[in-house]
Each structure stands twice: as structure tokens, then as C-alpha cells.
Amino acid sequence: MPVLTMSDSEYFADPAIDQTSLKKYLISPLAYAEYVTGEHPSSSVLEFGKAAHSLVLGSGPSVLVKPSLRSKAGKTEYEELLAEHDGEDIVWLSQDDWDAVHMMADMTRGFFAKLDGRPEQAMFAEDAKTGLPLKGKADWLPSKPDDDGILRIYDYKTTSKPATEFPRACWMFGYHVQAAFYLRLWRLCYPELRRQRLGFSFIVQEKQTPYDWMEWRFDEDSPEITEIAAKQIDHALEGIKWFRDNHKDPLKAMRDWGYDKTPQPIQFPDWKLLEEETEIDSWR
What we know:
By secondary structure, this protein is α/β, with parallel strands linked by helices.
């Protein structure tokens, strides 16, 4: 099963199921259908992250400052840059953002430079249970284990929050699902690793000065992976397969399956009730 070096455009054009679409299905079949059929416009936040990935990992689009198109000189410079980088994928940034991503890269580039392996590796495999085609693009696929004997995929993420708060973002944005999904793909692509301990590491860097960073890890046998994420992945894949097996137009059928419209009671979790009660008691 292939592991390939390919451009983002080639990768995203492949119809195999990725971790983002799986997380959309966990929201609802409607969210999944909208994601796989809808437009995915870029944004300044996405472009910033894409630029940071390119500079830090040493693989990706050219990162350029976009000249002002309000002046003749700026338009000329823009056309000259397009000609100079003809055929290349380009991320256009403001001067401030260009300065920021370069300072971020100065902080973390050395970490990735010391790793053995390859950046931006696309993995493709067939799910063993459902037979559905899967894909995932690892920021860094290693060639040998870390010093503790664990072979880890590395993923680079930027954040506007303190890097110390990443576990909350991990749960909120389903990064545990991403980790479990990539580890599953890795196992499928490399069956010879069946006796090798695997893990997943996030390099999380702040987007504000001093652009500090932290490393956060999952081991493959951690409960967040085995008891939560793996079961969520299975649930999503089984649901997608059910729609494909039972409907001529599965995506059209999925659009009838959004949020539960039954009125729901508002209930705070026990820990929140205790927290609020403690706060109220402190007023007395």
C-alpha cells in the first residue's frame, strides 16, 4: 500500500476518506456530505498555517509577501513574482505575517532538521473492516524510532492560544482522532511494523512573540487512542459504509441526517456544577 510524496492539490483530489471528513461524520452525516461536496475557501488563518508548515518542514509552497495592488509599482511587482514562480504553489502573506512565520521557523526548524525521515508523506490504504479507501498526509514520517524506542509520526500545529493549553484544543478539534487515524494508516501501509511500538507527537507553536513551542504526545496504546478515538473512527467508517451500501445516492441521503431536532434539556456537567458552587460559596 503506497506512501507517496505528492502536492496538496494531488492529495486533496483523491476521493479516499481522510481524517477531516471522518470528524465531520462524527458531527453528523449532513456535515460529512456538506464537507465532501462543498467548497473549501482559504482564509488568512489557513494561509498563515500553510506558510508556517512550508518553512518549518522545508517542504511546501513558496512563501511570498503580496505587493499592494493599489499602485502601479505594486501591480508590476506582483506580475514579476508570478512570472518568477510560474507553476509553483504560492502562499501570499502580508509583510507582518511573513516576518512572523520566518521567526517561527527560526525557532522550530532545527527540531525537524534533527529528525530522521521525510516531510509531507501521503499514505493510502484500505480499511481492514469496511474495505473503504483511506488517506492521510503526515507532516513528518520517521525512518527510525526516537531514543525511547517508539517510532513517532510528527505533526506541526500553530496556535493563537498558549501552547500549554493544547490538550483542551486536542479534544475540541479532534486531534486524538487524527493521531489514531494516521497510526492506523501507518500500520496498514507498513505491516512489517506490527511488533514496533508507535506513537504520535504534536509540535505546537504559538503564533505570537516569542513564538515558543511545546511537544505533546500520544502513545498508540493510550486510552485516548484505544478507548475513544479508535472507536469513533470505526463508528464513522461503519456509518459511511452503511450509507454507501443502502442508498443509490449516499451523499443525498446523508443530507437528511443532521442534528437531532428533539428538544434537549440544558445540563451542566458535574464538574462545572461543582466549580460554580465553589465560586458561589466563596462569596459568602
